[in-house]
## 1
Amino acid sequence: MKLYAATSNKGKLREFALAGLEAAPVDTSNPPEENGSTFEENAAIKARHYSLLTDGPVIAEDSGLEVDALGGAPGIHSARYAGSDSENNQKLITELQGVEQRTARYVCVIAIAEKGEVLATFRGEVEGEIVDQARGNSGFGYDPHFYYPPFQQTFAETPPEKKFKVSHRRKALDQLFAWLKNRFQTL
Ligand code: ITT
């Protein structure tokens, strides 16, 4: 069984590789409009769209940061909250100025689809806190401001393999792997 992975995000691809995911890349130069209102809907839209371009099952994921004091924002708009990663982070910190409650979580939903039909979705989450000062150079996206209390570090200060072990993406991928094993007796 040949599996494909559709993402244009290099950070996600690096973490898929850490998981040992063996999947062929898909041309993502013509992405679908992500007009769903949940991570599940947007992951399904992407997986369904790219599955029409391949001859086997495709995984796609939708992920983001939910900040409690911002009513769950940036949420499904995380990638394009303000623009680039640094603009996104700047906006996040500005929005949280003077706000005491800092709890937040990363969410990752992976969808698998074949020939235009979504077969399953899997959700992983990891809880943390938003810190004003950017710390660390590793990871991507909001990682310099995402403090993970059990490590007493931001995810950008955490070595990639260590971040990955506890991450939202890993939790969703583990469920995917269990599902694939069951369905295709492979992996
Ligand atoms: P694809 O749709 O092509 O996969 P994308 O970057 O547009 O790539 P999303 O719409 O799912 O993907 O947006 C995910 C955003 O959420 C990402 O750009 C980051 O800003 C944030 N994010 C998700 N997981 C993250 C992580 O592990 N560390 C830091 N930021 C993360």
## 2
Amino acid sequence: MNEIKNRIEQLRTELDMHNHNYYVLDSPTISDRDFDMMMKELEELERSHPEFDDPYSPTRRVGSDLSKGFVQVRHEYPMLSLGNTYSISEVDDFVKRCRDALMGESFTIVGEMKFDGTSISLTYENGRLVRAVTRGDGEKGDDVTENVMTIKSIPLRLQGNDWPERFEIRGEIVLPWQAFDKLNAEREFNEEPLFANPRNAASGTLKLQNPAEVGRRGLDAYFYYLLGEDLPHDTHFDNMMAARKWGFKVSAVMTRLKSIADVDAFINHWDTARKELPVATDGLVFKIDSLRQQLNLGYTAKSPRWAMAYKFQAERALTQLKFVSFEVGRTGVITPVANLEPVLLSGTIVKRASLHNADIIRNLDIHEGDMLYVEKGGEIIPKITGVDGAARKADAKAVAFVTECPACGTELVRVEGEASWVCPNKYGCQPQITGRVEHFVSRRMMDIDGIGAETSETLFAGGLVSNIADIYDLTREKLMRLDRFGEKSADRIMQGIERSKTVPFERVVYALSIPYVGETVAKKVAFSLKNIDALMSASVDDLTAIDDVGTRIAESIVEYFAAPVNREIIERLRRAGVCMEVAEQSAAGASDKLNGKSIVISGVFNHHSRDEYKALIELHGGKNSGSISKKTSFILAGENMGPAKLEKASKLGVPIIGEDEFLKMIEN
Ligand code: IVH
């Protein structure tokens, strides 16, 4: 028994170390494959020996799928902001002010990056992460511990043993450029609104009620401030170096500076060099190094007198508008795009910038041929931020939003309560048709190899595919009659079509292009209703009873299945052999023992994982709920249920049920 315990501990320690090498030091010393194998071994040992369970195990990094409301927590030390400036000479003035206040004592300044993300305060006790809280209003913030635990570069257990028994460390949660681009590409594909910059994406992600999704998005974190009663050193810099040894990611940019000349050189260097960094930054921060001197300098009501931020100028260019084009997406939404005289901005040539919707064109009062300001601050997508009114010709006409679809000529309609105009000709408008086909066949949906954007258009133009069901009427012969296809490419498509018949039902639901039904909603709806007939006959009430399905989504689903064209498409897909129900195994053993019950899962379990309990609840007719309310039937509680939840449960008189009792409840 002891041997197993030791092996588990050894695997955890080694995996923690490899995570640190990979996510913090960026220098892995083990292959992905070996890492995965160690992880698998640990998972298996933990599964067969729940008595050695530990919520801090590296296997817990994936995060549960469970959503929950955030609890507000008061900061032990308030989270202040920084005085800031865009001018080097004001930074010099800051240094001089410090010099005067320190009465000629010598001092060192630490220069560091100002990361453009969302700030976080972590509390560690006995070397373990116990809480992660957002800045909130500076006095109190949201407890986002469960989400933060999915960020792989944040140590759950510290290395070494020279850390204070209890301390706080503050830093910035960021979404690196690469992860940001990937996320936005996915959102663009799903026609979801894009994040304007990595900061919005990071804070939006951190507030998701779904830790598994948070874990998937690739957040990272840099740390820049250590607080506590017994810190190891009396300078900021040394404390940060100690934190780096404990496992935190501390930026290598952090430098000790001795003079105003050093400070100015640091600014001049990083003003451009920062563009090479993997994460967004919006300035630099200068801090007095000595903690004693920091104390001497003190604070104003809002910010420390011992620190100052220098902000980078957002890059802006002035260029002429050639014309505004209007593009039609898969769901018929019309996006206006400013086509510009090419201009160089932050190292890339900008020719187009989205104008998003009609309101933006009106608010900026854009006229034909206007000179426009384009900005690319933290934003990856260039943004039109203003118009040079003085450069406008007297007879220039205001840019009008189209009233008819630029692709099919149908009169546009405005979505109630939204800024967008939509082409209602869903089944006759080419970009909508080919967009839906393209969506249907893509990798994360039906995964039909060989059909992409261009092929969808060729198939449409050749009269072969004007809706997703037509794909299943394709034959090798029909394909080969089109000039573009040889035997090989035709065979590849036919094989892809055949294979798509094994794609599980939840992905089929996603592939249908029902407006507002993204991947997560498709899964929830599929698992809860089990088959296409139940989905087609579901009412708005039936649908809103499902987790994560709001009225807008429910109405969209009902509307979709009310259309005879769609019902016919479904029948044809069914006849072609496309999967129309959830796999057998997920439906076996079902009962209605938990019908009408709303259940919250909390804590750590021995017999099943949280996801398994979640599935069990749904299997027996219950509903998983993220937060405790008067409507909660009971809490399924494992070990280590959070104190805030306990308190809320007892206040509302919600019963707490242990896992053994729960398993008895659903037993046959
Ligand atoms: S120090 C009391 N250092 O900027 C000083 N802040 O405007 C605490 N930030 O809320 C902050 N990089 O979210 C500090 N290297 C850095 C920073 C940094 C980014 C953010 C932080 C803070 C805001 C202040």
